[in-house]
Design brief:
The structure holds two protein chains of two kinds. Chain A is α/β, with parallel strands linked by helices. Chain A is built from 29 helices and nine strands. In chain A, the strands form three sheets. A five-stranded parallel beta sheet of chain A has the order 2-3-4-1-5, sandwiched between helices. Chain A has a two-stranded antiparallel sheet with strand order 6-7. A two-stranded antiparallel sheet of chain A has the order 8-9. Chain B is an alpha/beta fold. In chain B, strand 15 and strand 16 form a beta hairpin. Classes of the chains: A alpha/beta, B alpha/beta.
Chain lengths: 630, 482
């Protein structure tokens, strides 16, 4: 099976950040946010990042924040410290000491708490006065020296009053904590945690994160590690993850010198804290959109980051999967259907593996009910969103007559990363421009989500027709009537269930009339170029043609009118062109992209039935003969 | 579709870290190479100590007795760190029976006897110096290293005497020659070869081969009332002085006796792999002749083969034949390889023993009771210390006596040396041993050592070894001139 989780576009960014170890304390490092809706391979990417630092091994902690899981910052720091101390052998004396202080019984007097603390620090770990839990494993960072050396050290200390290595470490951690706690009474920190309200809990979280970052800075100052410390946080878009990240970033901001921690966070929603960056799909002047993982670089982050606490964030979008010929014979159709969305691509590839022809491809998807069952359950304003899928872009959908909650829905879609943007030309013609082509852009739904929503809308034909009728009315009734957009929605309602579908005839009639009017010179050039644009806009319409019917029958029933089976009239040629392109643009109607031959043929036919622009039409025929990508 | 999951791209370490690691690795490799080279040079130049009391130094067979010696030495060093002397026991411990002239069992008994003497001396002589035993191998392959080590440690280890020295082999002769140059006191326990004699510092407790030849011949002549027909079978192995001197002495004594008809001699070479076949041929020739006595001048190891050969031929089985063998026949054990078949008791084997176990086990023995007790079942008695040991071969008794002789000489000298404030040296002990006035009542009998280093013995026991390994004292043959 192909490995769909093997996107490694993060490599350059992580490679740069993890290797900025020298000189220690000089380089600021980002909190990298891997963003994408569920199924974009964030968890897999974290796994591959972790696997990338095992030879030679460097300290790494991988934390997962399950949505239902609760947990304080203290619990997260303890888990993080445990992994670093026990598994990666990183010394974190301040962190462990602070965690130990927080375990003390806050109901005791200062003196009794101090006795508890000393009892544990002096090695009473087999029968400690308090339950230290998992912290017991970490106390080795405040070294235990074994019974023989311990008694020897105790004797020497008693006789000579010499200070032992544990004393130095205790004192280092204690003196650091004493300076960090107002009043200097370290045991007071335990009371802060249990008794004194949320602001003091936040203070404790801050002290813990300060301790952690200071320990890491000290540990990395000795050049012991091959890379910076890597912290991977999966599903960080939970309250626990949010609290932990806020505390960590606040602590990092308080520091005067950078720490060696590279944080990579996977999130399926846009964090509120990212105010300096612009969400994908939100178009505005001076927008600061996150780069894709392949474009992201440390220098790019330094150039584009915000200020204060906002400066640490570096949102990065996981890219769509590129089509891989190894996927099988219907790789192009699958890729165009899923738009490179990893989770969908995986399902479709597995499903269509070994299919023999276009009809089998369609039948497999129909029988599996794939497009219905893969629609995410948790979507904001689901029913409204289903209606939105009928509209060419979100900007128009917001203004649609049925969009009462539109502004809110747009925001929620942006937060959940289901929005993206698209050049207007691509949006109107369905043809992707060459990379780097500029021009105005519009906000659109993620291609895969729109495909699923359209399929759900098609399951209710009356609603499908109503939504498209409403949109047709909308385009015709607004200030400047957009007949082309109206025809787009009229074509969408063609079903082919009845011979000589009237709505298709109306679309053909519309385009034939426009052809007649544009078949003239404007200066030296024919205006048929404009007609081709109209034709392309109309034929990008969605369809609700059934998946369980033979493609040939479906095509033939639509492409030929009973009144002119020989297609002698220009209108008949235009009809064939409309149906061919309508099919060609939908990978479910033309999985193998064979309609390009018919398009080329019909453009050549049309060239014989025009007064001007013959060369324009023949060039278009040539273009389709070269099998352009959809 | 591909079934191959792509491997995650590895993020290389920071270049400075990699360079540092390379430097550390190169440094570690250089250190390792230096250490290896130094170790190689050290081992090339270093020779392990050949004199030792390590329990594992001479294999599992010697582990028990070496362990006891080690423990006793440790106690001596602990209680008397500045007042002890060292006696070195040299035995061909690394050599096989053929080359050593002694079996491993015999050497184990020798060490047991040495330890017994050390133990009793250290526990019953409160005013004497404590004795430490060191053991060294003096086989053909390692006698030179052992002698070199011994020389280098004479002063540092307070070595006062060397005892044991093994059987009459070329290696033993070399050892005695080398140590004799330094006038080291040597007490040979079971060495019988006549041509090892008159060396500086050397004394022997065992009777010489010439004495054994006389005793063997007299035993034969005294048994028969008519002329006897004898043949000598000689081992011509060039490293065996023992065999050669035995042959010469048998021949000399038998030729002089008018009651003996000496038939042409037969030979074999124990250093040759075909000696077994040759011995069988010799047996056939003897059985086909009229010989009724065979004087065997060779090591005991080949003797069972010869006896089995005699038992195969009708002539010997019908008329009967007696074999006279030297002292090391005592080393034949009771295992299958050491015995022979003789259903009609026609093949009889006699040998001249150095010391018989009856010396220390028979209450009627002339040996002092206090000495006999040391070989008994008391707490520190031989039979209690070594329940699996044996006194039959005489090795334990002879080596006990050898250590006692050395210790007595040392004890005789120590008060004087202590008064002088000087350390006792081997040459002083040597001088005492070769004074001509040294006497000791040992376990093998009354020992008087003449100024030539030979222990004078009035008589020798002749013992019969039965086909099943049992021994029986036949006669004490006088060596006095007739």
């Amino acid at each position: 099976m192909a490995d769909f989780s093997s996107d490694d576009s993060w490599y350059m960014l992580l490679s740069e950040c993890l290797r900025l170890t020298h000189p220690p304390g000089r380089h600021e490092l980002p909190v990298i946010l891997l963003l994408g809706p569920p199924g974009t391979g964030k968890t897999a990417a974290l796994g591959r990042i972790a696997a990338g630092v095992i030879e030679p091994p460097s300290p790494l902690v991988h934390l997962e924040f399950h949505p239902a899981a609760e947990g304080s910052v203290l619990a997260r720091v303890q888990r993080l410290a445990h992994d670093l101390v026990v598994l990666r052998k990183v010394k974190l004396p301040r962190t462990v000491f602070t965690l130990l202080v927080l375990k003390l019984d806050p109901d005791l007097s200062d003196l009794e708490m101090e006795e508890q603390l000393q009892s544990i620090l002096r090695g009473n770990r087999s029968d400690p006065p308090i339950d230290v839990g998992a912290l017991g494993d970490m106390l080795s960072c405040i070294p235990t020296v074994g019974p023989f050396l311990k008694s020897a050290a105790a004797t020497v200390q008693f006789v000579t009053r010499l200070r032992t290595a544990p004393d130095f470490l205790h004192d280092t951690a204690r003196s650091w904590l004493t300076e960090s706690v107002p009043g200097g009474n370290v045991v007071d920190l335990a009371r802060d945690l249990s008794r004194r309200g949320r602001d003091r809990t936040d203070f404790v979280s801050g002290v813990l994160c300060d301790a952690l970052l200071e320990d890491l800075a000290q540990a990395w100052s000795r050049h012991r590690y091959p890379r910076n410390c890597l912290l991977l946080l999966d599903d960080a878009d939970t309250p626990a993850g949010d609290a932990f990240l806020r505390a960590l970033i606040a602590a990092r901001t308080r520091r005067t010198e950078p720490d060696p921690l590279v944080v990579v966070v996977a999130s399926k929603v846009w964090p509120r804290a990212l105010s300096h960056w612009t969400r994908p799909g939100i178009l505005m002047p001076d927008a600061n959109h996150p780069p894709t993982a392949g474009q992201a670089r440390h220098a790019d982050w330094l150039d584009r980051r915000g200020k204060g606490e906002h400066r640490w964030w570096y949102p990065v979008l996981l890219p769509a999967l590129p089509a891989d010929p190894l996927w099988g014979s219907y790789v192009t159709a699958v890729h165009e259907l899923s738009r490179g969305y990893p989770a969908a691509t995986r399902v479709l590839i597995e499903l269509t593996e070994g299919v023999g022809d276009d009809d089998e491809f369609r039948r497999v998807l129909h029988e599996d009910d794939t497009l219905n069952r893969l629609l995410p359950e948790r979507l904001p304003h689901r029913e409204l969103l289903i209606a939105w899928s009928a509209v060419r872009n979100v900007d128009d959908a917001v203004d649609a007559p049925f969009s009462g909650q539109a502004p809110l829905l747009r925001d929620e879609l942006a937060d959940t990363l289901w929005l993206t943007d698209q050049g207007i030309e691509e949006n109107e013609t369905g043809v992707r421009p060459p990379p780097g082509t500029g021009g105005p852009r519009v906000t659109v739904l993620h291609g895969w989500l729109r495909r699923l929503l359209l399929h759900r809308l098609a399951a209710d034909p009356s609603r499908w027709d109503a939504v498209h009728a409403a949109m047709e009315w909308f385009y015709l009734e607004r200030g400047q009537a957009d007949h082309v957009a109206a025809m787009y929605h009229r074509l969408a309602c063609v079903t082919g269930e009845e011979p000589d579908d009237e709505r298709l005839s109306e679309v053909v009639e519309f385009l034939a009339e426009r052809f007649e009017s544009l078949d003239r010179h404007d200066g030296e050039n024919s205006r048929l170029r404009d007609w081709i644009k109209l034709y392309e806009q109309v034929t990008t319409a969605p369809n609700r043609l059934p998946l369980d019917r033979s493609l040939d029958l479906l095509y033939d029933s639509l492409a030929t009118h009973s009144s002119d089976p020989e297609r002698r009239a220009r209108k008949s040629v235009i009809r064939a062109l409309v149906v061919a392109r309508w099919f060609w643009l939908d990978p479910l109607l033309d999985p193998a992209g064979r309609c390009t031959e018919e398009l080329a043929r019909q453009f050549r036919e049309l060239a014989t039935r025009c007064r001007t622009g013959r060369s324009t039409l023949l060039r278009e025929a040539d273009r389709y003969e070269r099998r352009p990508t959809r | 579709m591909s079934d191959v999951r792509r491997v995650s791209p590895r993020i290389p370490p920071d270049e400075r870290y990699a360079r540092r690691r390379r430097r550390v690795r190169i440094g570690a490799a250089a250190t390792a190479v230096t250490l290896l080279a130094a170790t190689a040079v050290y081992f090339a130049l270093w020779k392990p100590a050949k004199l030792t009391d390590s329990p594992d130094a001479f294999g599992a067979e010697m582990r028990e007795v070496m362990g006891r010696i080690h423990d006793q030495n440790a106690e001596v060093r602990k209680k008397n760190p500045h007042d002890y002397v060292t006696i070195v026991v040299l035995l061909p411990l690394s050599a096989e029976w053929q080359a050593a002239g002694m079996s491993k069992v015999a050497m184990e008994h020798a060490l047991q006897g040495s330890y017994l003497a050390q133990l009793w001396h250290n526990t019953t002589q409160p005013k004497a110096s404590r004795v430490r035993l060191l053991v060294g191998a003096s086989g053909p392959d390692d006698w030179e290293d052992t002698v070199e080590d011994l020389r280098s440690r004479l002063i540092g280890d307070r070595i006062a005497a060397v005892v044991g020295l093994g059987a009459s082999t070329a290696a033993t002769k070399h050892v005695i020659t080398e140590l004799g140059r330094d006038n080291v006191a040597m007490v040979a326990a079971v060495l019988t070869s006549d041509d090892v004699n008159a060396r500086h510092g050397f004394v022997r407790l065992a009777p010489r081969n010439s004495d054994q030849a006389v005793a063997g011949a007299r035993f034969v002549v005294d048994q028969s009332d008519k002329a006897i027909k004898a043949v000598i079978v000689e081992d011509t192995n060039p490293s065996q002085h023992y065999s050669r001197t035995l042959h010469d002495n048998y021949k000399r004594v038998l030729e002089r006796d008018k009651d003996v008809v000496l038939m042409p001699g037969l030979t074999f070479d124990s250093s040759n792999g075909t000696s077994g076949a040759v011995l069988s041929g010799n047996a056939q020739a003897i059985c086909n002749s009229e010989a009724d006595y065979v004087f065997y001048a060779g090591r005991a190891e080949q003797l069972p083969t010869f006896l089995r050969g005699l038992n195969q031929w009708q002539g010997c089985v019908e008329r009967g034949i007696r074999v006279i063998a030297p002292d090391d026949t005592s080393e034949l054990g009771k295992d299958e390889s050491s015995t022979w078949q003789d259903s009609g008791e026609k093949i009889k084997l006699y040998y001249t023993a150095l010391a018989h176990s009856a010396n220390v086990t028979d209450p009627q023995s002339k040996i002092l009771k206090s000495v006999r007790d040391r070989f008994g079942t008391a707490k520190d008695g031989y039979q209690n210390l070594f329940p699996n040991g044996s006194l039959d071969d005489g090795d334990a008794i002879m080596h006990y006596d050898a250590v006692c002789v050395a210790m007595k000489a040392i004890d005789d000298l120590l008060p004087e040396k202590a008064n002088e404030g000087k350390q006792l040296e081997p040459k002083h002990v040597s001088e005492r041993l070769r004074s001509g006035s040294f006497i000791l009542d040992g376990a093998s009998g009354h020992i008087e050592i003449d100024k030539y280093g030979n222990a004078s013995r009035p008589e020798l026991p002749v013992v019969r070894l039965m086909p099943n390994g049992d021994v029986r004292l036949e006669k004490l043959v006088s060596l006095a001139a007739r």
